[in-house]
Fold this sequence. Notes:
This protein is an all-beta fold. The chain is 0% helix and 52% strand.
Amino acid sequence: xxxxxxxxxxxxxxxxxxxxxxxxxxxxxxxxxxxxxxxxxxxxxxxxxxxxxxxxxxxxxxxxxxxxxxxxxxxxxxxxxxxxxxxxxxxxxxxxxxxxxxxxxxxxxxxxxxxxxxxxxxxxxxxxxxxxxxx
Length: 135
């Protein structure tokens, strides 16, 4: 899949069937999570401690996808994260509900800062949570 080699900076996380935690270092627009996860209706993605080098805007758009080897990937919408840029301990989160049971969800970073390839995204902590019990 195009972009996955460049996205190898996302640290390896536990198996695709579990919640996981990692970080992001030096992503530009269009890079995707290397780790995929299984879902049964709900996914939450949390970014804590965001920085965007060379950015005039403090934002990143996070898109949720489901990988499909035979057809185009399925797209489930986007969330704009801004709060995580407030401090190293500030968190932004996005929730997606009503998702199908699939083994290979992933996210994409888009429109980092003002968008394009201007800016490098760093996130101190990335969490993917597939259980709604904590909300």
